[in-house]
Amino acid sequence: MKKFILSVGYAFKGLKHAFATQLNFRIQVSVALIAIAMGLYFNISNTEWHWITLCIALVLMMELFNTGIEALVDLVSPQYNKLAGHVKDVSAAAVLIVAIFTLVTGTIIFLPKILSLIHAA
Ligand SMILES: Nc1ncnc2c1ncn2[C@@H]1O[C@H](COP(=O)(O)OP(=O)(O)OP(=O)(O)O)[C@@H](O)[C@H]1O
């Protein structure tokens, strides 16, 4: 049990480190909070909450993996290395894919609600 609590502590240490050092992670957390506020405002359905929370989890998870991979590349290859560059680029591409998926999902869920709010005004 003590080992489990320690592991959770290390995970929170990682979160704190990513938040303190990564501007992108702070932006993504802010966007996630805005999405949650919009979900509450528009009173979205359970299914829509599932999609929104899935997107939030995927984006934050991919950014954390990307941060870890970047740190590992910098550790093992501080000098310019073509392969090291590829590793970072591919890792960044994974974040991009999830970001596009999130943008599409957010648009499908929120755009009709925003438009009907505008029309009702
Ligand atoms: N050691 C390296 N060898 C070759 N190319 C690299 C190396 N380090 C970085 N690059 C290239 O520069 C790009 C940007 O790298 P960088 O480490 O600045 O990442 P970043 O996405 O700007 O991350 P952050 O700003 O969060 O540190 C990489 O995607 C890669 O193309």
Automatic annotation (TrEMBL):
GO biological process, one term: phospholipid biosynthetic process
Compartment annotation: Cell membrane
One Pfam family, short name: DAGK_prokar
GO cellular component: plasma membrane
GO MF annotations, alphabetized: ATP binding; kinase activity; metal ion binding
InterPro entries in alphabetical order: DAGK, DAGK_sf, UDPK
Cofactor note: Mn(2+), Zn(2+), Cd(2+) and Co(2+) support activity to lesser extents.
Keywords assigned by UniProt, alphabetized: ATP-binding, Cell membrane, Kinase, Lipid biosynthesis, Lipid metabolism, Magnesium, Membrane, Metal-binding, Nucleotide-binding, Phospholipid biosynthesis, Phospholipid metabolism, Transferase, Transmembrane, Transmembrane helix
Protein name (database record): Diacylglycerol kinase family protein
Provenance organism: Mucilaginibacter terrigena
